[in-house]
Predict the 3D structure of the following.
Amino acid sequence: MNGMNRMSHEQGMDVMATPTSSSMSHSMMSHMTFFWGKNAEIIFSGRPGTSSGMYLLALIFVFVLCILIEWLSHCKLIKSSFNHVAAGLIQTSLYALRIALACLVMLALMSFNEGVFLIAVAVDALGFLLFGS
């Protein structure tokens, strides 16, 4: 589509390229502003769908991810008696896991669903209260 815009611009035409029907049907499903409702695509295309139960399950999934992230951020699993090399490998592995989980939460937030946003913020605050303070 960028090629079409570039070509029309180079030819001196101010015409916007029209999207194909397949891209229009997908873009109509995706929200680009915050919205409230259970009809959202969270992380995977077509999931959770239009079912209230699946939407609730997606919110629980985000809840668990956020709690795990906060727990991993504040837990002290490595004892001072560990070998320095082993402790470094364990700490690096836990860091990688925490970043992977945080990326999943970020992808869930990119659904622009207000319920997902509120769950993520509230659970991060709750996790900080439980594990960080």
